[in-house]
Specification:
Blueprint: H1 8-11, E1 33-38, H2 48-63, E2 67-72, H3 79-90, E3 95-98, H4 104-113, E4 118-122, E5 131-136, H5 138-152, E6 157-162, H6 167-183, E7 188-193, H7 200-212, E8 217-221, H8 226-234, E9 237-242, E10 253-259, H9 262-274, E11 281-284, E12 291-293, H10 302-317, E13 327-328, E14 334-336, H11 344-348, E15 357-358
Parallel strand pairs: 1-2, 1-3, 3-4, 4-5, 5-11, 6-7, 6-8, 7-15, 8-9, 9-10
Antiparallel strand pairs: 10-12, 13-14
Helix pairs in contact: 2-9, 3-4, 5-6, 5-10, 7-8
Length: 359
């Protein structure tokens, strides 16, 4: 099996003069379907983009000679993304996966010009007849690791290296904090915003600052392994982001939230091959296997692993809701009463923080 992994510089030569709205022709016998991925970061980030690229490679392994895959890494959100998406569509790609929230408007604009191409947008909310959206319930994983943090912290202070204050990140911080406080009611999470998805230098500096402020556990919603490496050097605990990062911090790495895109990608490319693809909006988590929890550090006490597993299994079977009340915000105002839980629509637009979060 051969594959085509196209980087940015190769795209410059793609047919800019192709008819923008020309329909896809039917594949000839033995011809491979072209599937493309657009990444906001480098495939070597060991986090978000790395895991999407693992999924792309799983498509190749599963579908073999029936597909030809392409990726473009380090694509900036905005005009650059629109250009790359248009070039991929114009060069015969039948399905294109855009893997950053900030690609949303570019996807919608390009999709209108190429109605026969299927577009899939990760973490977005705008659909069209040829645009589907898919997202993972990462906050479910943060409920599990927040439980672990509540058991493992001695100082009661956890450091959170965060990217951007968008709902996806805010809900993760809140889910983590709520779970930690169910175990350690006086715990706090100190948040440092680095305003980047991937910047190892800024992420490392944030982790150092948080440890200097008393944090004995570091968690993150950024993509490099730098915070884990700082935790390893400074004797703190930490959690991996998007992938198992234990090789970067074998002592410090407690576990990781793992993004598992491969099965979804295989399913959707197969749907194009057999003509069954339809637009949809899905939000899958631990139950569906799109979010997984990595192996636990052998140094983690058995009772802590058991507590984490109870939470993980409870989310899967529906007996535990990450945002079940009572929940109070930073100002102490009751946001969710006891006996109630936030609906998906409320979680998806979350712009406030729970008690214990210090932003």
């Amino acid at each position: 099996m051969s594959s085509k992994a196209t980087r940015r510089h190769l795209l410059a030569g793609l047919g800019a003069g192709a008819a923008l709205a020309s329909p896809l022709r039917r594949l000839a016998a033995g011809e491979r379907l072209k599937a493309g991925w657009v990444y906001v970061g480098p495939i070597g980030d060991h986090g978000w983009t790395y895991r999407h690229d693992v999924g792309r490679r799983e498509v190749e392994a599963a579908l073999g000679e029936r597909v030809e895959t392409t990726y473009v890494e380090k694509v900036a959100e905005g005009p650059d993304a629109e250009r790359v998406l248009r070039q991929l569509a114009a060069s015969g790609h039948a399905i294109i996966f855009a893997t950053s929230f900030g690609f949303m408007n570019s996807v919608i604009r390009v999709a209108k010009q190429f109605p026969q191409v299927k577009f899939e947008h990760a973490t977005g909310y705008k659909t069209a007849p040829n645009v589907a959206v898919y997202n993972a319930r990462f906050h479910e994983g943060r409920t599990v690791i927040g439980t672990i943090a509540g058991h493992m912290t001695k100082s009661g202070i956890v450091g959170y290296v965060a990217s951007f204050p968008i709902p996806e990140v805010v809900m993760g911080i809140n889910a983590f904090m709520l779970a930690m406080r169910r175990v350690r009611p006086d715990a706090v999470a100190k948040v440092v915003w680095v305003n980047s998805w991937y910047d190892p230098g800024k992420e490392a500096d944030a982790a150092k600052a948080l440890i200097d402020q008393g944090a004995d556990i570091i968690t993150q919603h950024t993509d490099s392994a730098a915070p884990l490496q700082v935790a390893e050097e400074r004797g703190a605990w930490a959690f991996g982001q998007a992938s198992d990062m234990s090789r970067f911090a074998p002592r410090a790495h407690l576990t990781a939230i793992i993004d598992n895109w491969g099965p979804y990608y295989i399913q959707r490319v197969q749907a194009v091959l057999d003509g069954s693809w339809k637009s949809h909006a899905i939000w899958w988590g631990l139950r569906e296997g799109m979010v997984k929890i990595g192996p636990y550090n052998p140094r983690l006490p058995e009772e802590v692993r058991e507590a984490a597993e109870r939470v993980r299994q409870g989310i899967i079977d529906g007996s535990i809701h990450p945002f079940a009340g009572p929940i109070r915000d930073q100002q102490g105002r009751l946001r969710v009463p006891e006996g109630k839980a936030l609906a998906d629509e409320e979680i998806l637009r979350m712009d406030w923080y729970v008690e214990g979060v210090q932003t």
